[in-house]
């Protein structure tokens, strides 16, 4: 049994080296296919994590009329703090809002410095319980407060959560579509490469048949060849994906501005990485098995 295993791996290694040019082409196509899938998986990871962070830190900002007296502001604050899903309410004065703007956007500090009046209104920042953040009760409460006198506007990041979820689903769908097309291309390329290898070794196969080689014995080296090509391609794609993720912020991050956080890639986790490797091996195996079954005729 051990001698058979050694024979299978020796023949597989010889085939991979003997037909290295066409095998390199197969590995390249597989690598590009799974690199595309990996990029969209990484982007989807970031969008999913960003959505989770937004949902767990659900907040609502109620902007108040700057002329509202202190007593009226306190009345609004008490009304907002009444629902059970409200965890905390914080009053942010116009001066505090201006200072935040200067700290968060230092490049725009000169714009507000030239203004005669503070353009920021006071606001009540509300922290909502994460479990109730997406409930209809919260949405109804926000809609009701929009109509309350003294409240000029409301910023509710539930809309952002829904948009981020939509972006995440869209990125996943695009990645699955493009990756599926490229993986299907890889499948046909591997199938044709193995078919060429079968034809190139037809004399050797005939000799194996004459000495009593079974169908399974003849097929196994071709299966191992396809699996190896698929594994090499998907493993190389994970390496290139790591490089892309490291270089992307360097070359494009500064030019993306506010989109930098949104388009940040998060490297696939262990489960996703293993899935990509298994997918590469499966693509290679299915391509080689299909080719052997169709063209070897054993």
Short synopsis of the structure:
With 298 residues, the protein is of the alpha+beta class. It has helices spanning 2-18, 20-56, 70-81, 94-104, 109-113, 136-146, 158-200, 202-210, 215-256, 259-262, 270-296; strands at residues 59-64, 86-92, 123-128, 151-156.
Q: What are its keywords?
A:
298 residues; alpha+beta; Alpha-Beta Plaits; four-stranded antiparallel sheet; 11 helices; 73% helix; elongated
Write the layout of secondary structure elements.
Layout: H1 2-18, H2 20-56, E1 59-64, H3 70-81, E2 86-92, H4 94-104, H5 109-113, E3 123-128, H6 136-146, E4 151-156, H7 158-200, H8 202-210, H9 215-256, H10 259-262, H11 270-296
Antiparallel strand pairs: 1-3, 1-4, 2-3
Helix pairs in contact: 1-9, 2-7, 2-9, 7-9, 7-11, 9-11
Textual characterization of the structure:
It is elongated, with a radius of gyration of 30 Å. The protein has helices spanning 2-18, 20-56, 70-81, 94-104, 109-113, 136-146, 158-200, 202-210, 215-256, 259-262, 270-296; strands at 59-64, 86-92, 123-128, 151-156. The chain has a four-stranded antiparallel beta sheet with strand order 2-3-1-4. Helix 2 (20-56) runs antiparallel to helix 7 (158-200). With 298 residues, the protein is an alpha+beta fold. The mean pLDDT is 75.
């Amino acid at each position: 049994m051990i001698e058979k295993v050694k024979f299978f791996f020796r023949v597989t290694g010889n085939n991979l080296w003997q037909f290295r040019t066409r095998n390199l082409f197969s590995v390249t196509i597989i690598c590009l296919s799974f690199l595309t899938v990996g990029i969209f998986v990484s982007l989807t990871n970031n969008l999913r994590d960003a959505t989770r962070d937004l949902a767990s830190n659900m907040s609502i900002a109620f902007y108040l009329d700057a002329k509202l007296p202190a007593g009226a502001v306190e009345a609004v604050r008490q009304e907002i703090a009444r629902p059970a899903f409200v965890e905390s309410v914080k009053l942010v004065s116009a001066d505090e809002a201006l200072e935040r703007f200067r700290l968060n956007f230092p490049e725009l500090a000169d714009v507000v410095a030239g203004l005669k009046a503070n353009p920021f209104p006071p606001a009540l920042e509300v922290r909502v319980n994460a479990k109730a953040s997406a409930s209809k009760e919260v949405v109804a409460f926000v809609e009701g407060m929009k109509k309350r006198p003294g409240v000029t506007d409301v910023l509710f990041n539930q809309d952002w959560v829904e948009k981020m979820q939509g972006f995440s689903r869209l990125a996943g769908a695009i990645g699955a579509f493009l990756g599926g097309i490229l993986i299907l291309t890889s499948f046909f390329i591997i199938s044709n490469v193995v078919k060429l290898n079968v034809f190139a070794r037809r004399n050797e196969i005939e000799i194996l048949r004459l000495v009593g080689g079974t169908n399974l014995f003849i097929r196994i080296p071709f299966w191992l060849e396809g699996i190896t090509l698929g594994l090499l391609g998907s493993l190389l794609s994970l390496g290139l994906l790591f490089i892309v993720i490291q270089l992307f912020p360097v070359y494009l991050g500064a030019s993306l501005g506010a989109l930098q956080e949104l388009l940040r890639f998060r490297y696939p986790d262990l489960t996703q990485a293993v899935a990509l490797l298994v997918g590469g091996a499966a693509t290679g195996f299915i391509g080689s098995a299909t080719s052997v079954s169709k063209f070897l005729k054993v």
